[in-house]
Each structure stands twice: as structure tokens, then as C-alpha cells.
Amino acid sequence: MSPKSPEPGRQRQNAEIRKPEIVKSFYSTILDHGFEGASIARVAARINIHPSLILHYFGNKENLTLELVDYVIEEYAKLLENVKLGGLSAEDRVDKLIEVVWSREYYEKIHIAGSFSIVAVSFHNQRIHEKLRGLYEGFRRFLAKEIKKAADAGVIENNDPMRTAARIITLVEGARHFRHFFVGDHEIEQYNRDMKEATWMLLKI
Amino acid sequence: MSPKSPEPGRQRQNAEIRKPEIVKSFYSTILDHGFEGASIARVAARINIHPSLILHYFGNKENLTLELVDYVIEEYAKLLENVKLGGLSAEDRVDKLIEVVWSREYYEKIHIAGSFSIVAVSFHNQRIHEKLRGLYEGFRRFLAKEIKKAADAGVIENNDPMRTAARIITLVEGARHFRHFFVGDHEIEQYNRDMKEATWMLLKI
DNA sequence: ATTAATTAATCAACCATTCAGTTAATTATT
DNA sequence: AATAATTAACTGAATGGTTGATTAATTAAT
């Protein structure tokens, strides 16, 4: 409504708002241009801020990358936290869990291209590698706990939940990252049904 | 033997020798510094040649990258070609196959860091993506053919080898790429045994 | 008035790439 | 067998563009 302002520009924000905004911009820049193509200049341009502002907040690119990893990990972890299993019977808990890890929402939450870039970087960045390892360890423990519950209730037979959890994660992550290489669009639904069935099999070993 | 030569330097080679040498140097540079860190200068320095020589042979970096992908794919494909299944009984063929895909040699042939970098790049490079898709399609067909043979011989029950092959690849690639995140060194052998057993289960669905 | 958010201008380092020129090996000619 | 012609391997210097980073100046909020 102010007819004078020459350029609409960007409102001045505080760190609490700007920092996540920058991290998200970094993430989507990676999706578009890959990790190598995600320069600070591009990340800044995407949200119409000055490149220096990013350095002001993060100091250097390494820190920005580390905060991105935290962001991705949090998004990932949220999925597990939001699974509401309370009040369900032992059998339904397992059912629901399998439903979740093979759901479209779970698959699409973190774009594979993004997660791939981050894993690729983790191979020559110890700190990022440790962060990811922590994420997977948490995932594994979470699964193992559920598997044990189901076994105790007699829904499945299982005397080594941690081993079973490793099998499940292997299958889930394998699918998340590679299915688009060998599964055509027309057979995605069939593939997903097969995967759920396979998960049940692996649970019962 | 010539005592005069001031610097031992590098002998002059022909393209047949030099080009693969450059591609391999590119590969190991990626392992050390990631794809972003693998500049032409670094690739050249690693084998003591002039950076321009790389451009002389490959024209530009895109071409070098494409030839690297071919190299990795060939190394991958060799593994399957070298599996000698002739003369074995139907049951032994399946046995041998499972033994191979879960062997240390198969796992270590192409370093995960390298394959990850390439897959990551494939997400914003159509040509590389197509190459990888071709590789996986070949792998899937190869597996499916073997599965069908085993089913025909009555070793396993199976009426959809292509679907079964997709399950196996999912598990194998999932393990190749992620096991080091959640499987500790002390349980690798146990994990591998579990994986073979799981593969048998998935074969029999 | 102090502090925090933001921009501007600038830096050296590195990047892929070009091109013109040099050196060695191969082939053809005599 | 000697030499010239041709091709292939290789180098050095210069290109323009982009990178992450620094410093100082400006603007708004408290």
C-alpha cells in the first residue's frame, strides 16, 4: 500500500526465521543443481538475499552443510515420532509400522536426490558421517523395540530384534534409493505390495 | 640406463594406456575428495601429467565423467559375467549366485563412496541416469533368468521371476550402500549370514 | 543508543577451457 | 638406410568465470 517504496524487497527478519529459511534454500538448491552446484551465491539468490548474509549466519559453508544435515535428519526423525502407535493392539502396531515405512509420505518426505547428495558427502566428511550413523542407529533401535514388543505379545516369533531391524532397514533404504532405477512407474504399486510382504517375511525369520 | 635424463618424468604413452589411466585417477580422486573435489588439476596431479592432457583426450569434463561411469558400470558388469555357473546343478547355481552377491569381492569391487558419488550426480544428469538404469535392468534380467531356471527345475517355487529379482536387488543394493551406517564391524559376519538367509526367503515367496 | 540484520564492495584462489607451440613416434619417400 | 612428412602425445601460458570469504558501511529494531 505504500506507493513510495521503490522495491518491495525483503522484510527484515530475525535469525530464528532467516536461518531455517537459508537451510531450506540450500536443500532445494541441492535438489536442483546437486551438491557441487549449490554455491552460496545460488542459495542466496533463490530467496533474494545477499550471499554475505549466509556467511554472517553460518560463518562458512561447512557449518551450513552441517546444519542442513541436522535439518534432514530432523525431518526424517519426525516421521518416526509422529507415528501414533498408542492404543493399538500388538498386531496392529506392527501392521501400522510396516504401513508407514512403505507409505508414499515416508518415501517422499526427503527427496532421494537430497539424501543421496548428503550420503555422498558423508564419505569424506567424518562429522556428517557420524550424524548419519546416529540417525540410523536411532532408527534401528526404534524398530527393534517394536519388534520385541510384537514378539513378547506373540504376534511374531523373534529372538533377536536388533538383527531383524537391520534386515528391515536394509530393505527399506535399498528401496528408497534404488527402486527408481529398476522399477517402472507402471509396476510401482505391485512393487510396494511385494515389499510389504517381504518385510513380513523378514520379520518372521 | 641413460644417466643424462634430468628428470625421470613420465614416459610417453599412447591413448590406449593413458586414457584408462586418467579415468582411474578420476575415480580415486573422487574417492578421496568427493565429486566436487575432483578437479581436473587434482586428477592430473595424481598421475603427474599436465591438466591440459586430460582435456586433450576427453575434450571436457562432462565426457570424462561419462567415461568414468562407463568404467564403473563395466567393472560392475564384469562381476556378473565372471560368475561361472555352467555345469552346476540347478540348486547349486542358485547357491553359487547368492554366494557371489554377498561375497566380500562383490562388495568391495566398486567402492561405495564412488558409486554413491555417481548415483548422486545421476540425479541431475540425464545421460548418466540412463546409463545406470541400463546397468540395473541388465542385473535384474540376469537374476530373473536364473530364478526362472531354478523354478523350472523345481528348486524353488516362483511364478514371477522379475518381481523376485526386484526384491533381491533391493536387498543387495540396500546392504551395499547402507550397512556400514548401522552394522558394526563386529557383527558384519552375522549380518552377512542373515542376508543370505533373507535372500533365500525372498526367493521363495 | 545500542544491537542485530543486511548490504556493498572487494579479495585471492581455483575452476574448466582455449590455443599455440614443442617434442616424440610413426609412416612414407627417396 | 637415411630423411622428410605426418601424426600423436604433451606442455605452458592465458582466458574469463565462479568460488568462499573478508571487511566496512548501512539500515532497521529495541
Detailed description of the structure:
2 copies of one chain form a homodimer. In chain A, helix 1 packs across helix 2 and helix 8 crosses helix 9. The N terminus of chain A is likely disordered. The first copy, chain A, has 10 helices and no strands. Chain A has 205 residues and is an all-alpha fold. Chain B binds a DNA duplex (30 and 30 nucleotides) through helix 3.
Summarize the entry for a quick read.
Two copies of one chain form a homodimer. With 205 residues, chain A is mostly helical.
Biggest interface pair, counts? A-B, 46 and 47 residues
As an assembly, this protein is: homodimer
Distinct helical segment count of chain A: 10
In terms of structural class, how would the helical and strand content of chain A be classed?
Answer: mainly alpha
User: Looking at the structure, what is the overall shape of chain A?
Assistant: elongated
Measured distance between first and last alpha carbons of chain A: 67 Å
Percent range for β-strand residues of chain A: under 5%
Helicity of chain A, as a percent range: over 70%
For the sheet with most strands of chain A, the description reads: none
Mean of all residue-level pLDDT scores of chain A: 89
Poorly predicted parts of chain A: 1-9
In N-to-C order, the SSE pattern of chain A is HHHHHHHHHH
- Backbone CA Rg of chain A: 21 Å
Overall number of strands of chain A: 0
